[in-house]
Amino acid sequence: MRAPLVLPHPRSPRMSIRNVWKSRVIIAAITATTALPLTHCIADEGIDTRSKLTVHATADTKVAPDSVTLRFAIESREEEVTDAARRTSEQVNRVVQFLKSRGIEAKDIRTESIVLSPIYPKGQKGQYAKQTYAVQQSQGLDDLFGDSTPQQVAPNQAPTSNIRDQLQKNQPIGYSASRQLTIMVRDIKQFETVYTGILERGVNSIAGIQWMNSDQIQHRRAARIKAIAAAREKASDMAGALDAKVARVLSVQETSRGSDPFSTSMQLFGSESSGGSIEAGLMTLSASVQVVFELSDTEFEN
């Protein structure tokens, strides 16, 4: 146990005037510390006693698109792998030449992927898992629960005749070669012409479409401001119903989630693959926010 603090009497011959002032300062500090209000002690413990109101709001802005991004693929299937790859390459070159003739620049044409894979007869697997041990098949309960140990084959041992026969039977009947490209058509008026043209030149798969607007950033900013205004209005309505007032904003967070712009477009192109009219319509740019307000005058009568 710590010994109590004993201060000499001010009139003691051992104390100078300077020591007397030091003693008075120490006593004042101890008094101020013990007189702290309870709310300060709660704040020191990290407990927030403020009344808060959290609201979520979303606002949309509709604009007309002025450009479009299209993702498509060309796939060829041939008996020989080199023939499949060559045919796909020829069709891609035809499509690219057509796109450039329509004024689409090279910077707006991008190859997304190149895939080359074997084609096997229906019901046969294309690959066998690499096995380090070949375990004989269990014949009964004795093999499962008895003391017998399954026989194992060394990793470097040559395949048995049965496995070799299966590998010989499991041969591909052809090969598939495909390339996926993404293009941007900056002049939306010629999009339908471009779309029909690439289908005529070998494109046989459409992955999706994304309509865009050159002032998209400004429109999204406007939607964000509308969402903030909606959050403030909602907070005022809710606080008024509670006989409270909105004092100030504590935090603001945008909660919009990005999504794949191509994920909802495959059904559209499935119905438009014949080259019919494609309507762009209006784009919907949305913004969502979460705002935390501090409330005042929140005393309620029982």
Explain the overall architecture.
The chain is α+β, with helices and mostly antiparallel strands and 302 residues long. Among the domains are: 51-63 and 217-261 and 267-296, 2-Layer Sandwich (Translation Initiation Factor IF3), CATH 3.30.110; 67-120 and 172-212, Alpha-Beta Plaits, CATH 3.30.70.2970. The protein is 34% helix and 26% strand. The chain is built from eight helices and seven strands. The protein has a four-stranded antiparallel β-sheet.
User: Might you state the CATH topology name of the domain at 67-120 and 172-212?
Assistant: Alpha-Beta Plaits
Largest sheet: 4 strands, antiparallel
- Corresponding CATH architecture of the domain at 67-120 and 172-212: 2-Layer Sandwich
Strand proportion, as a percent range, falls in 25-35%
Indicate the low-confidence ranges by residue numbers: 25-42, 126-150, 258-275
Write down the overall geometry: elongated
Main structural class: alpha+beta
> Termini separation (Å)?
49 Å
Corresponding CATH superfamily of the domain at 67-120 and 172-212: Protein of unknown function (DUF541), domain 2
The counted number of beta strands is 7
Give, in order, the helices and strands.
HHEEHEHHEHEHEHE
- Overall pLDDT score: 75
Which CATH class of the domain at 67-120 and 172-212 applies here? Answer: Alpha Beta
Count of discrete alpha- or pi-helical segments spanning 4 or more residues: 8
Strand line-up of the largest beta sheet: 3-4-2-5
Over the alpha carbons, how many angstroms does the gyration radius reach? 38 Å
Q: Can you give the helix content as a percent range? A: 25-40%
Protein name: DUF541 domain-containing protein
GO biological process, one term: DNA damage response
Pfam families: SIMPL
Organism: Rhodopirellula baltica (strain DSM 10527 / NCIMB 13988 / SH1)
